[in-house]
Amino acid sequence: MELVIVGNGPGGVELAKRLAGEFDVTVVEKENIPHYSKPLLSHYIAGFIPEEKLFPYSREWYEERGINLLLGTEARLIDRSRKVLVTGRGKIPYDALVIATGARAREPSIPGKEHILTLRTLNDAKLIKERLEEEGEITILGGGFIALELAGNLAKAGYTVRVIHRGKTLLGLDGDLSERIRVELEGAGVEFHLETNALGADEEGLKTDKGYIKGRLKVCAFGIVPNRELAVKSGIHAGRGILIDDRFRTSARDVYAIGDCAEHGGVVGGTAKAAVEQAKVLANLLRGADDRYDFSFRSAFFKFADFSVAIIGRTGSAGSWLDEDVKIFYEGERPVGVVVLGNTQKAFRLEKAIKEGLPID
Ligand SMILES: Cc1cc2nc3c(=O)[nH]c(=O)nc-3n(C[C@H](O)[C@H](O)[C@H](O)COP(=O)(O)OP(=O)(O)OC[C@H]3O[C@@H](n4cnc5c(N)ncnc54)[C@H](O)[C@@H]3O)c2cc1C
């Protein structure tokens, strides 16, 4: 059985790893470099790890498992009637095809946006690192996890770091939690400008509704745009991302989608953790085993400077503090979500409890 995976990110590589040996696996990747860790990019920019530490798998790793890795190869069209993937380097027949094309960084839409960089790929990271070493300071737009990871690591490395965020709170959390995270990051040296709208950029800085903020290096780190073009061109249904059902099936027969490119129930994953967990479940489904991915349950673990934050389950309702580091969110009497500050072990325990409906203590 020929399994073709488009995309060598965490979703694609996890699926290839799990099914190698059982299927004839081909991974098609447009970048010309092996798989690298995006969560480690801000550590690399900060100078905490060398470039080679970003690459967990060597070319031999793929060869030993019999995975046919086609780098520098862009997937252009899925010929659904012939069950063939058309790439920039020829056609590849498939029995099952998995789109794991991920997402790209959302670009700002303000005048002077050419003066603002984005962060998604290793090339983006290299450019930011080079500019940072010249400038010694950085202005980051965004209040989500990518912005805060970058801010925390660069402040820890001794750079001057400003975060500009138009929202009132960080990570979409409530006021209390956002305040705790802000105070921790301020302690590490990050300067915050919340409820501040960027209106335009020039070489020297950023125009905002709260005044001009000086700083030549500006990086936009808010939001992602799912890479759905391959699916759309091939006549596969897409909304914001590629539309999938409970079993990762797209509207085309034997074509599946996982990770940041996929949309289920109006939601796009957005984390490496979700992409990897989806790949594990899809591997079982492709083997013919019964398995389910719980799309309604989301959890993500982050580290901002040295401060860890876990956001587990649904955290949109009113919450109450269990202790000084743990806030639980309820729907009626039932705990449905939890945020854990600074304690990863506790976070793992509570993730299991929330997921399995066990008592919280
Ligand atoms: C700076 C940064 C920090 C992050 N930190 C964390 C974190 O701490 N924790 C966490 O869980 N997540 C984190 N994330 C998010 C995480 O990296 C993504 O959610 C994850 O990479 C998604 O995996 P994916 O396999 O769906 O797609 P991607 O990783 O985007 O990989 C998709 C691959 O498909 C390739 N591709 C696209 N189109 C084509 C095509 N037509 N033909 C061939 N190849 C194609 C792309 O080149 C890419 O290599 C971070 C992201 C960034 C940028």
From TrEMBL:
What region holds the NAD(P)H:rubredoxin oxidoreductase C-terminal domain? 298-347
Among its keywords, does the record have Flavoprotein? yes
Keywords, comma-separated and alphabetical: FAD, Flavoprotein
Span of domain FAD/NAD(P)-binding = 2-279
Gene3D superfamilies in alphabetical order: 3.30.390.30, FAD/NAD(P)-binding domain
Which cofactors, by name? FAD
What Pfam families does the annotation carry?
PF1197-like_C, Pyr_redox_2
MF GO annotations: oxidoreductase activity
InterPro entries in the cross-refs: FAD-bd_OxRdtase (IPR050260), FAD/NAD-bd_sf (IPR036188), FAD/NAD-binding_dom (IPR023753), FAD/NAD-linked_Rdtase_dimer_sf (IPR016156), NROR-like_C (IPR054748)
Q: What is the protein name given in its UniProt record?
A: Pyridine nucleotide-disulfide oxidoreductase
The taxonomy runs: Archaea, Methanobacteriati, Methanobacteriota, Thermococci, Thermococcales
